[in-house]
Amino acid sequence: MTIDINKIREDFPILKTTINGKPLVYLDNAATTQKPQAVIDAVTTYYTTYNSNIHRGTHHLSNLATEAHEAARKTVQNYINARSEHEIIFTRGTTEAINLVAYSFGDAFINPGDDVIVTEMDHHSNFVPWQMMCQRRGAHFRVVPFDINGELRLDVYKALLSERTKLVAFNHVSNSLGTINPAKEMIRMAHDAGAAVLVDAAQAVQHVAHDVLDLDADFYAFSGHKIYAPTGIGILYGKEKWLEAMPPFQSGGEMIDLVSVDKTTFNQLPFKFEAGTPNIVGPIGLAAAIDYLNQFSFKDVMAHEEDVLEYGRQSLQAIEGLTIYGNAQNHTSILSFNIAGVHHYDLGTLLDTMGVAVRTGHHCTQPIMTAFGIDGTVRASLAIYNTRQDIDALIAAIRKVLKMLGK
Amino acid sequence: MASINEIQSGIVEDFSFLPQWDERYAYLIELGQKMSALPDEYRTEENIVRGCQSTVWLHRECRDGVVYFQADSDSLIVKGLAALLMSVFSGQPAEDVHAADLTFFEQTGLNKHLSTQRANGLMAMVEQIKAFSAKCTEGEI
Prior knowledge:
The structure holds 2 protein chains of 2 kinds. Chain A is an alpha/beta fold. Helices cover 40% and strands 17% of the residues of chain A. Chain A contains 14 helices and 17 strands. Chain B is 52% helix and 13% strand. Chain B has 7 helices and 3 strands, in the order ααββαβαααα. In chain B, strands 1-2-3 form a 3-stranded antiparallel beta sheet. In chain B, helix 1 (4-16) packs across helix 3 (76-89) and helix 2 packs across helix 3 (76-89). The radius of gyration of chain B is 14 Å and the shape is globular.
């Protein structure tokens, strides 16, 4: 291993926190990641030295803020290998990015009788917007199921694709199961059928390959806060040809060209989709997070996370009565499980008393829970700073809980 | 029968002997385990309290201006919390329940750990208990 995890842990001040007198073991990274000092500093520096509104001021601070905000767009473009910074739209998060496409693409290109395909393992944020869009547009909402291991049924997907399919949306990585879906292959299949594809990369962009050109994704959405950046900033990548052809999502300042009583013309990309004063510091924080990650070889990051994940999987499986949900061949960063006779809420609550932070519940993926016939799981999710010691602490805490519950 | 406030004081005292959070949860779990099981006929769809990560059933009765509650949950911690609520409110005059201040929650510090979490549905339970008691007071039931 060529990355020094102990050194990385030093970069994240919150990891020194204690919870209920116990050292924090943070395993809720799929919900949100912690921030390195470099990101915290970037945000603080912005507010302490050059806070100003952007794109319109004639003064020095406004120029500095505009420059940093737009440089961040470049940083994101390079990170996901987009052709142009015009293809990078700043949003509030993945949810807003998906809603933008569901409205703008839907209004422009989805007609009654068309098909829109999502998957049974999508987060509600990549499920409900399409369901609602289909209702608005009179289109059919099709759902690709998954098998017992948490792998998408590609045979069903293939059968669903037809010339009626206008759009396919799926998550690259499942937030509940950790499955890495075969995005490139699924995109190729959709393109062969003439459909555009949106990839929800909220759980992928920080853990697996994130090259939009290689994937050939039409749209690619992710959230800053899951990749070590602040909340409130997300990215929508869209191929220029689609973004040019789509109407604006929200309207107001910034997104216009000329406004008169008779008509309004719109600004060029990406500003056409960025109405109003944006989250100025968000992209600056996101760029700092990407710069932080870029100092490491991404391969090394993946190898480290894989090592901790497999160690976690083996350690959990040694606990009697424990079931892991999501056993796909290709998986990453997520350990979703239940223990027979123990409610996930009880387990999560009691782990918290021992300083172990996990998430419990349905993780905004009720269709997954329905498919497994459960109402929730305990989910431990990893990030770059997690170690085998974190897994050991989780396992020790679980054993204590089981004792408390008389198991 | 002790008044709502006397019962609440008793709970606060019980918890004062348990400074550690793991002890407090162990106590809650014990309370939940000791609570008598909810009869199957009360485990109905309409008795389910929404807004919980666990399933919570709350059975309500209003007789002669007095309210009676029985509850259950598939989570032991939530069941323990429900047991506390039952001990405070069940068998009390509806008027008193409707007017009561839930003080034990803050005084035990349980609120700090639990009330901010929508997941446990405790507040939803309290709201339903209060709303039912208001109706019972007005003789609507």
